[in-house]
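DM from R.C. (forwarded with permission)

"hey, sorry to bug you on a friday — could you get me a structure for this? deadline for the figure draft is monday and I only need the backbone to look sensible"
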Amino acid sequence: KDDDYLNGVSTYDIVLMSKHLLGVEALDSPYKIIAADINKSGEISTLDMVLLRKLVLFIDTEFSNNTSWRFVDANYIFDNPIEPLDEDFPETYPINELNSDMQDIDFVAVKTGDVNGTAIVNLNEAADDRTFKGELQLNLEEQLLKAGETYKIDVKAKDFTEILGYQFTIGFEQNAIEITDVVAGEIPSLDANNFNMQGVSEGVITTSWNQVEPLSLDDNTVLFTLEVNAKQDVKLSDVLNTNSRLTAAEAYRAAGSDVDLMNLVFDYTQSGDNAEAFNVFALYQNRPNPFKNETLITFSLPESGEAKLKIFDLSGKVIQEITRTFEKGYNELSINRSDLNASGVLYYELSTSKHTALQKMIVID
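My reply, with the result:
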């Protein structure tokens, strides 16, 4: 069986492997030790952790010198259970002649890389059966990005207490923003090797970080910084998030002798002068654009009050009009293609008693 390499594998396995290597907490089963020998070299080393992180980050999709699963004869008794890699343990069962019924042959299935035994082995089990105890929120400052401008987006600690590691996928709308670089901040042992930038053209970056001893950081400590180019006028939280599209979003918090598995999300806050950016009159580019079924039109108002949104074609014919009372600051409207009954280039205009702004959008078939 040589498939589904990530089954049961996470950054927490790297945490346990590093504890074993440093003598902090030994792996307590010969099968866990076999699982930790990622490159099948006959010993556990830092290279095994490097290879496993590449798998978690989706830099690699398989092990170059090992299979996804290994199977050990269940009847085999290890001479030294704490050093199983020194033994030639049986992974095959020879049958020379088969001329009568024989006893059942049993094997212990070892999932390579899964040193804490979380692999799902039955096809009828749920694909994601993780149970979270709370969530780790990483803080970002909410802001409105303007097309053509470059920004440095700090990802900061928030209630970052007794954390052993984390992993997640950074998702972003590549039509709205471009992430050009990720710069490590003040968190120990974090560098370029903790990120996979190969998927930026598809709107994904994966990251994985861990250390042996639990780490606590002051709130607003910068973990890392995203360098972003804005392609459209957009609200940051609308185009940047955490998800499990590739690397599953999760964090690990030490809780005495146990470890709590936590969900991980971005938390957006407004503070200081930046909050004023939401209190101006501005009409932003619709997203997505072009669109086929539905698009989102966003805008900001300097004060609460009535505003009118008109959508019209090249001839000036109004094909949809929405008049409503909106709140001060950021607002959004969802527009369905079915309500427009039109395609091609359209214009949308936002107007109040004091302001007017115009943008262009494209409807495709």
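R.C.: lifesaver. Residues 17 and 23 are 10 Å apart (CA to CA).
me: no worries. The first strand starts at residue 69 and ends at 73.
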